[in-house]
Amino acid sequence: MTETELLMWARGPALQVATVIFLLGVLVRILEILVLGRKASLAEARGSAVAGGLRTIVTRSIPDRGTLQRSTFNIVAGYIFHTGFFVVLFLFAPHILVFQDVLGFSWPSIPTQIIDATTIVTIIALLAVLAHRVRHRVMRFLSRFEDYLVWFVTILPLITGYFAFHRIGLTPPTLIAVHIISVELLMVVFPFTKLMHAFTLFMARYYNGAIAGYRGVNS
Amino acid sequence: MSASFERGINAFKEQMDAPVAAFFSSCVRCGLCAEACLFYTETGDPKFTPINKLEPMRRVWKQEYSFWGKLTGALGLSKPVTDAELTEWETLVYDSCTLCGRCSMVCPVGNDIAYMIRKMREGMAASGHAPEGLIGATQRAVTIGSPMGVKLPALQAQIRHAEKDLGFSIPVDVEGVDYMLLLSSMEIMNFPEFISAVARIFRHAGVSWTISSEAFEATNSGIQIGVSEIAAELVERIVAAAAKLKVKYVISPECGHAYMAIRWEGPNLIGRRYDFKVVHILELLDELRASGRLQTSGKETQRLTYHDPCQISRRGGVVQQPRNLMNQIAADFVEMPETGTMNWCCGAGGGVSSNERADEIRLKVFNRKKKQLDVIHPDAIVSACSNCRIHLEDGLEEYEMDIPVLSLTETIAEHLVDREQKEGQQP
Amino acid sequence: MTEITNDRELHAALNGLGAVQQRLLAAGFVKSVLHLCTDERIARVLETAADPEASDAALAEALKTARATTFDCHTRCGSEGDWLEQAGYFVARAAVAALTPLGQMPGGIAWQAAMSARMAQTSKSIVTGDNTAGLESENQYRLLAGFLNS
Predict the structure, then answer these.
(1) ipTM of this predicted complex?
(2) Do B30 and A216 touch (CB under 8 A)?
(3) Domain containing A78 — which CATH number?
(4) CATH classification code of B5-129
(5) What is the pTM of this model?
(6) Hey, which residues does B278 pair with through a beta bridge?
(7) d(Cα B108, Cα B31) in Å, to the nearest integer?
(8) Which listed site, A1, A17, B325, C53, has its alpha carbon 20 to 30 Å from B260?
């Protein structure tokens, strides 16, 4: 296969398949949750479940002081790599062009030097997070193959994207093809793993806040 | 019906709902829940990580309620849960979890882990993996009416004693009054002065109330062990008594899990709304305070702090009321570091203190409460749950800390203005 | 001659006493029900409580022992209760009250000791069916009156 054929395949059939798996998979996972339903409580409410649920979706992003003190690395590194990942994904000009193709609209990008620096910072944060996962006794205990797989498919697009942008190692078309394939890998793995938390955490936080809010507690 | 592994797995399945599925789907194995759980922080053993206590239930969810899980199961690629694993998990689910819910407050993706542990206990109990102490307590609750075997004559003796001390009678089985008071066996056996305290306060404040001789027990062992049918039956007895006496309110006493059972779980267990409202004794006392019907004089000068019983505060929503009451009777009220809905569990609730096998770990994790106390150095601790109270005393004694534990209701009663004397002094 | 005939008078008179006096009286209340407690630690701590010259260190040590006894004697949540053993628990609690520094117990230490001592009798009477609980308060009035008049 020539490098052009590889790139065409990556941008064409591979992307189509990955997108279908991603969208269908995410939809199925969300429906699987919703279909189980939730019984309404017959106890007399003290507060509003809906208000509590919506509130917790937002406030759960802010850790309480004690947790921040005890799990500083986890929280700080976690925020760094999440923020970095989203900045690179959504605010890099070439990415925005792809989104424009799909969605029909675009938004402002940020300078590539900043994207570049953010990519490095994010990669470093992810490496640190992996080291932490392996060394911290609780995380090591809890971690399964899936956690390491997810880590790998998350860092790979950042590394391949960096290499593609800086044309390191292989020819540009190949580098871009590899980068796109690494994103497709992420998309395909996504619905089968904890990456679903990107969507389901809104539901989980809502339910948490609703259950507590009903009883008059801000969770 | 006897316990069996199949019944256990079926019980797990029956407990699945959208929240459970959302929670299991969202867990990213970050381990933050471990740092919120005193059983982990005081032992350093990662198996006490809250989400780990749910592992068998998670696998049942995955294998039965997710497409991918069902597919891999059909291909023989997944590990079904075994009875041996449930045996292994028994101590995690019962001995090292009080359903305190602190983990539920810190999980970054929003998992209510305590909610799931409560559900998991249904499966554990149905498969015969509940601790002996709890099984005995539950059997006694069903057959005798009290998990500690307190029968009506014993309660009547305590009431008579109280009446003798008070100089007035305590209403029993009086129809048409506003409030029906429940009592926990712990109070009747270990802290019966609670009855006198309540009687004095109610007389002072002009509250019309009664105790039912047919349903006086507040403790719900069914909730703790995780057998909803039994929990429902215990609630039905209270509902029937409340209907017979035509009361408007049922009062939950100083017992944490009793409040959760009757206030929040009760109607869902029996499948219908109550014809009465449920109030925690602290809610009622605060209402009386706010309306001016509760008059106190003098304040405790010793340095007091308040321990939030988890089921009343974090899981129950009665957070501000005890603080209003504390400010009424304490000149020097200091909050624990991390207080209110983020206070730390005493380590004994949810059936842990009924379980002799858990004694060692229960005392070990009390160290978390000790660390809180070491920051503020109170002269005494006030709380509103008899189980917390006795366990705090045990823990303090174990760690050689000379700090008495007081009941908030009883302390308020000690400061009641003597209305008769006061009226005599009116010009 | 001071006479104590009811609880209001008992409470008022007790709270008018100083720390050592309350402790000695409380010890008297405990002694009256000591036979209901099978744990010999309480007899020992009672000696310290009843000693007007007892040092602070000795009192603190005795209090620790009394508290430990209280916990060992109580009926744990969810376990089957035995009212005769509970009587012992209340005797231990009365001993704890007697040894607690004044001011740490709302209501007063002698008063709390009196209440716990009565509770010990009530517990016993749940099993035996007698009326010793009622008699105990009379006993306490006499004890206090005797103390005040001496």
Answers:
(1) 0.96
(2) no
(3) 1.20.950.20
(4) 1.10.1060
(5) 0.94
(6) B250
(7) 10
(8) B325
